[in-house]
Design a protein that fits this description.
Blueprint: H1 2-17, H2 29-37, H3 57-67, H4 86-113, H5 115-138, E1 144-160, E2 163-164, E3 171-172, E4 175-190, E5 197-205, E6 235-245, E7 249-258, E8 292-301, E9 306-314, H6 326-332, E10 345-354, E11 358-367, E12 387-396, E13 406-416, E14 427-438, E15 446-456, E16 463-473, E17 478-488, E18 496-506
Antiparallel strand pairs: 1-4, 1-18, 2-3, 4-5, 5-6, 6-7, 7-8, 8-9, 9-10, 10-11, 11-12, 12-13, 13-14, 14-15, 15-16, 16-17, 17-18
Helix pairs in contact: 1-4, 2-4
Length: 507
């Protein structure tokens, strides 16, 4: 209020201090008295000679309507172009200051009336200031946030496997299994500019030697081998840096970065809590192999939904030195040339289109001759001469959650160069359809099911898989997911039926 008074008084004071332009005979004392005595106008429209095009129209309107301290001449005019006498300036200034004083008195009354509430608010603000000070003094980092995910899974299968007899996928030592496993990931997300991201992920689990890991045919979505340090070993699972480049472009590079970390979009809405690892490839495990290694990529997307991605990953594999299972191969492939850059690589190009509730993408992926990545846990070493992999995936989800689920589907084809001695042909195909109901029965919960198949070679029987899950969101940070799954092994692989209960903690 002091500043307002100063701004208001300054021009009038200058006018009062200025030399008198008119002599005493020119002063209309009666007019000044009349000006001061008349009732103030309440709307600028009462002045017949003031138009909206006048340069001071808005300022005059504010003085009239907000403060009510402007009066006109007896004939209903303001005479904005006429020189103001010192008496008139004094009358106008006095009227406006009176209104300012009234406003100040009203504020004082309000402050007195709400004195207790204001004291409480002040105490809360002081308390928040103190707490913020403690957090700032003891914070982990000014640029880094720590986010963790811990998963515990209790489940089993009607048939499991303790060994894999050949590269064709036949399993021996079949027996029942019940296991209790864990998987823990700690994500350190760092931003230096507010728009970039440095991600460092530490991971450990004990799925590797269970029926849900590398020794079984029922690998789970979170059973991927985190490193070559073995069961219970903590290792670096991600290390990459991502930043914007120009308008709509994003660049990514890292010593440990996965294929989907560098894609502009993921063409599936089946994401609440998928169970089987083979249901996480958008129906095209060859094109979306989720390869992990040293890599770099560039993506672009615009406001209309169009996007394109191009990326390269070198996983340092030597020919014939492959993982035994799709889950192990796709999330951190074990290799004797860790971090190497060379012939063992995958190159991916994706073109996509994503709107608010639907999207689709076409992907092409080339696996070099030295790279060996499994197709849904089958024939891990098929790729002896390189391969060309194609995938088309799409999804649609309702704008409001209800009885209509989201639908995700995809198809994929792999063409191996020079054929393959491990199966009956050089071509593999796959497909998948997945349904998901968000807010199923209870807000925050989710119901999902998926069915898919993979066929390796022209005459080999296809391997089919089905899963059904219901995710209970117990709290904002804890969820419990019971699930059922069935796998038709195809050929000599036995059918498998299993169930589990997975508890996920986010912190």
């Amino acid at each position: 209020m002091k500043l307002f008074k100063q701004l208001l008084v300054a021009p009038a004071a200058l006018g009062l201090l200025a030399p008198v332009a008119a002599n005493a005979a020119d002063l209309n004392i009666n007019g000044v008295s009349k000006y001061a005595a008349d009732e103030q106008v309440t709307s600028i429209s009462q002045f017949a000679d003031v138009k909206p095009t006048d340069w001071a129209y808005q300022a005059l309107s504010n003085l009239i309507e907000r403060y009510g301290c402007v009066a006109g001449y007896p004939n209903g005019t303001f005479k904005g172009g006429q020189a103001m006498t010192r008496f008139e300036a004094a009358a106008l200034l006095n009227a406006c200051l009176d209104r300012v004083t009234e406003t100040t008195d009203e504020l004082k009354k309000l402050m007195t009336e709400f004195q207790k509430e204001l004291a409480i608010l002040k105490g809360r603000v002081d308390g928040l200031d103190a707490r913020v000070g403690v957090l700032e003094a003891n914070q982990f980092s000014t640029t880094t946030k720590l986010k963790g995910i811990a998963v515990m899974t209790l489940g089993g299968t009607s048939n499991g496997s303790t060994a894999q007899s050949s590269l064709s996928g036949d399993r021996t030592g079949v027996q029942d299994h019940i296991t209790f496993n864990y998987d823990v990931k700690l994500n350190l997300d760092t931003s230096f500019t507010g728009k970039d991201l440095l991600r460092t992920t530490l991971r450990a689990n004990n799925y590797q030697n269970s029926t849900f890991g590398a020794l079984g045919n029922t690998a789970l979505a979170d059973a991927s081998n985190p490193s070559n340090v073995g069961t219970d070993g903590v290792a670096l699972n991600r290390l990459f840096y991502q930043f914007p480049v120009g308008n709509g472009f994003t660049a990514t590079f890292g010593a440990k970065v996965r294929q989907d970390d560098m894609l502009a979009m993921w063409p599936s809405a089946y994401n609440a809590d998928p169970i089987l690892d083979r249901m996480t490839y958008a129906g095209a495990p060859g094109a979306y192999n989720l390869n992990l290694g040293a890599g770099a990529g560039l993506s672009y997307k615009n406001a209309n939904g169009f996007n394109v991605s191009a990326l390269y990953i070198s996983n340092g594999l030597e020919s014939g030195n492959s993982a035994t299972n799709g889950a192990a191969a796709t999330d951190d492939t074990i290799s004797s040339v860790e971090g190497g850059i060379g012939a063992a690589s995958s190159t991916t190009v994706q073109v996509g289109y994503a709107k608010d509730n639907w999207g689709m993408a076409f992907a092409y992926n080339y696996l070099s001759a030295a790279t060996s990545v499994a197709l849904n846990d089958l024939n891990a070493s098929y790729n002896v001469n390189g391969s060309n992999n194609l995938g088309f995936s799409a999804y649609w989800q309702p704008k409001k959650n209800g009885i209509v689920p989201s639908i995700s589907a995809g198809v994929g084809t792999t063409y191996r160069n020079g054929g393959n001695t491990a199966n009956n042909g050089s071509r593999s195909s796959s497909w998948e359809v997945a349904l998901q109901w968000n807010d199923a029965f209870i807000k925050g919960n989710a119901l999902g099911m998926a069915y898919g198949a993979t066929q390796v070679g022209g005459s080999d029987p296809s391997e089919n898989a089905y899963e059904l899950f219901y995710k209970f969101q117990a709290t904002d940070n804890i969820s419990v997911t019971p699930a059922f799954f069935w796998i038709n092994g195809g050929g000599t692989n036995p059918d498998q039926v299993g169930g589990l209960v997975k508890t996920t903690f986010k912190f």
